[in-house]
Specification:
30% of the residues lie in helices and 17% in strands. It has 242 residues and is of the alpha/beta class. The chain is globular. The structure holds 2-amino-2-deoxy-6-O-phosphono-alpha-D-glucopyranose. The site of 2-amino-2-deoxy-6-O-phosphono-alpha-D-glucopyranose has 14 residues, from helix 5.
Length: 242
Amino acid sequence: MNIKIFKNTDDIGKVAAMMFSTQVISKPNSILGLATGSTPIPTYKAMQKNYDEGLVDFSQVTTFNLDEYIGLSHSHNQSYYYFMQENLFRGINVKEENIHVPSGTSEDTDKIGCEYDAMIEASGGVDIQILGIGQNGHIAFNEPCDEFPMGTHKVTLTENTIEANARFFETKDEVPKFAITMGIGTIMKAKKIVIIATGENKADAVYGMVKGEIKPQMPASILQLHPDVTVLCDESAAKRIL
Ligand code: GLP
């Protein structure tokens, strides 16, 4: 793992955005794996700036998002589709038909999951994937469990995740209890992974990811086995690995 520690979180966004922009400049029809959460917002802002300044053109890229809440339609203001429109897509020139976010409203999640993985595969696979990390070490919505899940699948969110994400909803009861997420197997197929962690509440997860035993109870620890992972952290998130 290539670990980089920063004093300033805006610098993390700039570096991550530059990694994405460099990828798109070198391969205009790149396949981008995208994430939600507060962590990637500075990266998305910096990507929009790179676009505004004419550094990069996203017109040929295809995007696949990691996950979506079950039960929220695309137009719901807490759906991950909506988040992506607000925080990235409407500020760059990605084509609507090239945007993919798993459907949170389909009845047959097994079918949707298989189709999503097949679409990623058919596109040639994700060239660069951005990830955040949950306080419990989850990546996308792959929660701590007994076996690393392979493909895109339905998950039951843990109490810890529901509590962490309640800040985006009026009440904790409104947080969906289920989600559909790329599996660990899907994520590990990405050619390049950039994972960002900021804030002291991520310090234990960062320790588990970088120095802990590789086990499904700490989902991010699997990234130790990926050949091209860059970890971008601020000093608070990195405090247990310094
Ligand atoms: C959510 C998302 C993850 C994200 C994580 C951390 O549950 N499904 O993809 O990495 O939580 O979010 P944040 O960046 O807001 O701390």
